[in-house]
Specification:
By secondary structure, this protein is mostly beta strands. Helices cover 8% and strands 41% of the residues. The strands form six sheets. Strands 22, 23, 24, 25, 26, 27, 28 and 29 form an eight-stranded mixed sheet that branches. A hairpin with a 2-residue loop joins strand 7 and strand 8. Helix 1 runs parallel beside helix 2. The N and C termini lie far apart (51 Å). 46% of the residues are buried.
């Protein structure tokens, strides 16, 4: 690599807070610049419960969900008003509060964000939904707080698809970004691999050996769980990824005898071969513009990450000075590519710029694989066995220890973070 590994720093530099002195919510924006490690300090106060008897119980749960959503964002340091000891000494810059009203099967959340010390209102928003779906309202409020302060929505309302390994079987699962509401999408007693989301989050593309066939590409809506065959050509049909416009996809096919990259239309037709090399080419991913692809190839003798134009031209190697790299994923911001590198200590995660410069090690220790960016480009979810069993972990890319997602004790691997999904409309 062209630069020495160094921990990535996610920057949160405070510029001037432009607070308008009026009765309306103020316009407050925090610019995210590189080079700083300061997080915004925010205090979460308990929601005021009202209405039915269940209001108090669910409001306490909602308090914790909001605090966790904000804490898991790389933007904030969180102080919980109901746990002063855990956050003693933290002087907050913002404070959240709100009213939690339950009426029958409906919940209404009115959330408020104020800046400190002036206590002027920065954001006030009301959400209504089914009581059984109350977590979505809280996630939306958290995302709107991030949006208000940074100009870009948070990712608490997004989801993560992944593979659960049980014995010899591998099934496709999905859960909320905080690990809640995990559920199986397949029960084929077969092998599912390499999930990937459509750009609008409505579909999941994945490889499966279902029905006793070889590896084929399938697509499924997480809501109806009915798989449809996209490509069942002879040989391999693997590692499919939708283009940013959703009109086509790229995948690995071996219908001509060797593992090559092909471009298909969204229904799996009109195959166009992109690579033509006796080496194995696989694990493609798109740049956010759709004009370039990153992929893994062993054409140099060992697996390395390469780039090429989306039509197959201008192939060039991205990574040097290492013996093995794999599984590239391009940040939705377009500025970094994350990939796996084999080192003396195991398999580490690195990022670099699309021209190969600025390499930084962002995750070490254990076997760390299958990195995928969050939709805001601020975090990476990945597979790791760092605690003795394959599971899903998230890094904020700021040098802090990764945190593990709760998968109910199941062996989990191959995560794919969804794009931002339609949220709860405010009243």
């Amino acid at each position: 690599m062209r630069s020495r590994p160094a921990p990535a720093l996610l920057a949160l530099a405070l510029l001037t807070l432009a607070v308008l002195a009026s009765a309306q919510p103020s316009e407050v924006r925090i610019d995210l610049q590189s080079g700083a490690a300061e997080r915004l300090r925010i205090r979460c106060e308990s929601f005021t419960a009202a209405g039915d008897r269940t209001a108090r119980v669910t409001s306490v749960e909602a308090d914790e969900v909001l605090a966790a959503d904000l804490a898991h964002s790389p933007v904030f340091r969180v102080q919980r008003a109901w746990n002063e000891r855990a956050s003693a000494g933290l002087v907050p810059q913002f404070v959240t509060s709100g009213r939690w009203q339950v009426t029958g099967a409906t919940v209404r959340l009115t959330g408020e964000l104020r800046e400190l010390p002036g206590k002027q209102v920065v954001l006030t928003r009301t959400y209504r939904g089914a009581l059984t779906d109350w977590r979505r309202l809280v996630h939306q409020f958290a995302d709107d707080i991030v949006l208000q302060l940074t100009g870009e929505s948070g990712v608490a309302s997004s989801r993560i698809a992944y593979i659960v390994k049980q014995g010899r079987d591998k099934e496709l699962w999905v859960m909320d970004a905080d690990g809640h509401a995990a559920r199986a999408l397949t029960s084929d007693r077969s092998l599912a691999q390499s999930p990937s989301w459509a750009p609008d989050g409505s579909l999941l593309l994945f490889t499966s050996y279902r029905g006793g066939a070889g590896p084929q590409l399938w697509v499924m809506s997480p809501s109806d769980r009915r798989p449809f065959l996209v490509s069942g050509r002879p040989g391999l049909n693997t590692t499919g990824r939708y283009a940013p416009d959703g009109q086509s996809l790229v995948c690995t096919l071996s219908q001509d005898g060797n593992a090559e990259l092909y471009r298909l239309d969204a229904r799996g037709g009109s195959p166009r071969r992109l690579t033509n090399h006796r080496a194995i080419d696989t694990s493609p991913c798109w740049s956010p513009t759709g004009r370039e692809l990153a992929f893994t190839s062993d054409r140099s003798g060992t697996p390395q990450v390469y780039l090429m134009d989306s039509e197959g031209g201008n192939v060039r190697r991205l990574t040097y000075d290492v013996t093995y790299t794999d599984s590239p994923d391009w940040s939705p911001r377009g500025d970094r590519i994350v990939f796996v590198t084999r080192t003396d200590s195991g398999f580490d995660l690195y990022t670099c710029r699309p021209d190969g410069t600025g390499a930084q090690r962002v995750v070490a220790s254990g076997r760390n694989e299958n990195p995928r960016w969050s939709p805001d480009g601020r975090q990476v979810v990945f597979t790791s066995d760092r605690d003795g069993q394959e599971g899903l972990w998230i890094t904020d890319l700021d040098g802090s220890p990764p945190r593990k997602l709760d998968t109910g004790g199941r062996r989990a691997l191959s995560p794919a973070w969804s794009p931002r999904l339609p949220g709860v409309a405010a009243e």
